[in-house]
Design brief:
The protein is an alpha/beta fold. It is built from 8 helices and 7 strands. The chain has one domain (10-249): Rossmann fold, CATH 3.40.50.720. The protein has a 7-stranded parallel beta sheet, with helices on both faces. Bound molecules: nicotinamide-adenine-dinucleotide.
């Protein structure tokens, strides 16, 4: 049996009530971390944390809007107050704007995507960095997407926000290497989530029309596969990696 990879570490997972965030939080707890699940959907965050504590893990839920600086600050403060310190931040919260060309996309949808998907990572990082540095260093992961690398029609807002995270991570990596903080992005391809099934009118259609058609491995990624990527980036397994992107996309971008 291999030793747990996150023993004694404290992590915040934003979007911790969502499908991928939940899987990341679960794997981190299994690997010995204490995890704060932060989500704008307070009930989803609470359910996630409850499942983790019921299984014997250390977890806490916070209702938080990552696009609001004060909410982000208070989420970081709660993690430190409750668990004593902070080593890891996974920025997984995101919104998925309606698929429309720029001419038809409402300004409010564009603004909200930038506010949550980009500014949310900025605000959470801004407040977390000070604490991670105090703890002696750690790791920040922005969850981007294969669509940070390639375009999908009708997805100007989503693609723009995810591409922005690659730039944000690189600059943060330079700025905070001296603090012992590594910053990377994790880019999943299409993942078999409830949101994916809803978007395609069922998981079978999603697997056929998106998974098989666009991913050379012939299927959507599983949330556990994405979580293993987050664990790699959060743990010392990636100790010489910063300012980089880890693609877990079933070959989507190789096509
Ligand atoms: N599902 C996929 O196929 C896929 C592919 C590539 C990348 N991703 C990325 O993975 C991440 C998780 O996606 P998912 O499929 O689990 O989606 P999801 O909708 O299940 O989870 C996203 C979570 O973010 C939360 N959230 C939204 N706005 C928020 C805010 N302002 N503050 C705090 N929380 C907020 C939602 O309540 C939700 O629980 C996202 O960053 C997404 O862009 C997903």
């Amino acid at each position: 049996m291999t030793a747990p990879k996150l023993t004694g570490r404290v992590a915040i997972v934003t979007g911790g009530g969502g499908d991928i965030g939940r899987a990341i939080a679960e794997l981190f707890v299994q690997e010995g971390a204490a995890v704060l699940c932060a989500d704008i959907d307070g009930k989803a965050a609470a359910d996630a944390a409850k499942r983790l504590t019921a299984a014997g893990g250390r977890a806490l839920a916070v209702e938080c809007d990552v696009s609001d600086s004060e909410s982000a600050r208070s989420t970081v403060a709660t993690a430190v107050r409750h668990f004593g310190k902070l080593h890891i931040l996974v920025n997984c919260a995101a919104v998925f704007p309606p698929r429309k060309p720029v001419t038809a996309l409402d300004g409010s949808d564009w603004e909200r995507a930038l506010a949550v998907n980009v500014s949310g990572c900025f605000y959470m990082s801004k407040h977390a960095i000070l604490e991670i540095a105090k703890a002696g260093g750690g790791s920040i992961v922005h969850v981007a997407s294969q669509l940070a690398h390639v375009a999908r029609e009708g997805s100007a807002a989503y693609c723009t926000t995810k591409a922005a995270l690659l730039g944000l991570a690189k600059v943060m990596a330079l700025d905070h290497a001296k603090d012992g903080i590594r910053v990377n992005t994790l880019s999943p391809g299409g993942v078999a989530t409830t949101g994916m099934a809803e978007q395609w009118g069922g998981m079978e259609t999603a697997e056929r029309e998106w998974g098989r058609a666009k991913h050379p491995l012939g299927r959507l990624c599983r949330v556990e596969e994405v979580a293993r990527g987050a664990l790699f980036l959060a743990s010392d397994d990636s100790s010489c990696m910063t300012g980089a992107d880890l693609l877990i996309d079933g070959g989507y971008t190789a096509l």
